[in-house]
Amino acid sequence: MDQGLAAFFTGLVALLGALVGGGFSARAARIGGEKTVEAARRQVQDQAQAESRRWLLQARHDAYQVVLGSIDPYTDALLVPTAEAEAAEAAKQRFRSAHLQVTVVGPETVRRAAQELSFAFVEVQRVRDEGRPVTFSMARKIEVRHTALVKAITAVYAWEPDTAHKIP
């Protein structure tokens, strides 16, 4: 009976060892699966963030091109006394549309600079509508605000590559 009891306990210990080992294997497999799922989720999230950053940069680039391209025609329409009313109105509408695009996608510094330029344009437009002459200081204000907008836009593109995840 001693040999039978010894074989029973040996079998019991072997079974217990197999159960414990199987439990650890199952736990390790579950942990490995969870880590794989987490890594895949993180990769998808990182990819979505990168795509969002690319979209924002492209949208800003497009808006900046439009607004910068609209400034000179509007300035000329306001400052040149012989400008036709239709041309001036078209230039104004083009600038307003471009300003709106910048307001939607631009960072605060660019939005503020575009708004200041818009205020300068409105001031000159009001003077022209009243039939008064545009002064040199008004023309200078437009030039200064235009330069400030260009600097603000340039600063957006001046971020360092290692800080690309922190798009202004």
Question: pLDDT under 50 segments (min length 5)?
Answer: none
Question: In one word, what is the shape?
Answer: rod-shaped
Strand content: under 5%
Derived from helix and strand composition plus strand pairing, the structural class reads: mainly alpha
Instruction: Please tally the β strands and state the result.
Output: 0
C-alpha end-to-end distance: 82 Å
Commentary on this structure:
The protein has helices spanning 2-79, 85-105, 108-129, 136-157. 85% of the residues lie in helices and 0% in strands. With 168 residues, the protein is mainly alpha-helical. Helix 1 (2-79) packs antiparallel against helix 4 and helix 2 runs antiparallel to helix 3. The longest helix has 78 residues, at 2-79.
